[in-house]
Design brief:
single chain; alpha+beta; two-stranded antiparallel ribbon; 3 helices; 6 strands; elongated; disordered C terminus; binds zinc ion; Znf_C2H2_type; metal-binding
Length: 116
Amino acid sequence: MDSNLTSRSATNSDNGRQTVVRRKRRLSCLDFSCGRTFMSEYTRSLHMRTHQPKTRYPCQMGCSETFSRQHDRLRHEVAKHGKQWEWPCTRCRQFFSSQATRDRHKCSNRASSSLG
Ligand SMILES: [Zn+2]
Ligand SMILES: [Zn+2]
Ligand SMILES: [Zn+2]
């Protein structure tokens, strides 16, 4: 056993030159198109609220879908559940969920059907 390996380890005298990359984990916004990053999950959750629409319209026909617009919900309810739209406009042939909505809408087709 005379393996006297005199391995001269080349001592690189560059001690302390290691660039310590502080890679703090940044959380990116869940909305891909937003691209913002956050230091903590809490900050992000606060920010995520800005992406949330304020009012959601849940489907009233039994399923758990929600919609950001009343009109979208209505369309869903009609398409998925066969709901009858009760308030059609006779002029523009749009349908509305309530009489108030129908009366308030800006009828795009103001034809010459002048009543009274
Ligand atoms: Zn965002
Ligand atoms: Zn539904
Ligand atoms: Zn109309």
